[in-house]
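sorry for the late reply, my laptop died twice this morning and i had to redo everyting from scratch. anyway the thing you sent over, i finally got around to it. pasting the sequence first so we're on the same page, its 266 residues, then the predicted structure underneath. double check i copied it right bc i was rushing
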Amino acid sequence: MAFLTIEEGVEVFYEEKGQGRPVIFLHGVWMSSRFFAKQVPYFSEHYRCLTLDFRGHGRSTEVHTGHTVASYAKDLHTFIGKLNLKDVVLVGWSMGAFVVWDYLKQFGGENIHSTVIVDELASDFKYPGFDIGAFDIESLTTFMTEIQTNRTAFLEGFLASMFKEKLPAVDAKWMLDEVTKMPESIASAILFDQSVVDYREFLPNITVPTLLCFGREEKVIPVAAGEHLLEQIPNARLEIFENSCHCPFWEESDQFNHLVDEFIRD
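ok and here's the structure:
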């Protein structure tokens, strides 16, 4: 485990294991790199497996600025540059998918081998003509209020909705601990930004191979979101995980690991 200085006053926590092509796992909003515990042992056997915590998340610096998807993408670019990583695979889950797309939008795909997108929409917001979005203004306002006034109870329910099956108590506890580490001010700031970013117009410009991984259970994200991405992103492939919800890498980790390995292998 290590810390990397991204800018003055901002250090991101990361872990790396193994050698070979770099594979970077990017977590969702409020989450952390700990959620990829079932990926590190597998991918570190044949790849340079890296997990990191976005600023303000997990064990990274609790800084009160820069909490936008675009800023996280810039942090990722700095991270890749400082570690001199080449031919990188980006695996973005939930908000992490937005970070992947914003990275490609800002910096291009010249240094990216491929991307894996896990259970995310082109935008979380229900913009006109985009009814599959997760949030309208009323639901987003409710989420923002709950984070400020009732966070622990609210996130207990939110975490439960991310999985098809009920989590063991030990896992539910550490996950809740992770998602309540940051101050409510940071949690609200990044929730709003990641809920309104919109990559629909950018998707057709993606040139790197893309694997789309979606859970069949639709408590959080509909399968239609994956089908929409498949239509819009060139050179994309969609895989549905029948016994998962928002976290197929956790609920069907063996299948997920093998499919991703097959996809990113030359």
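The mean pLDDT is 97.
thats about all i looked at so far, will dig more tmrw
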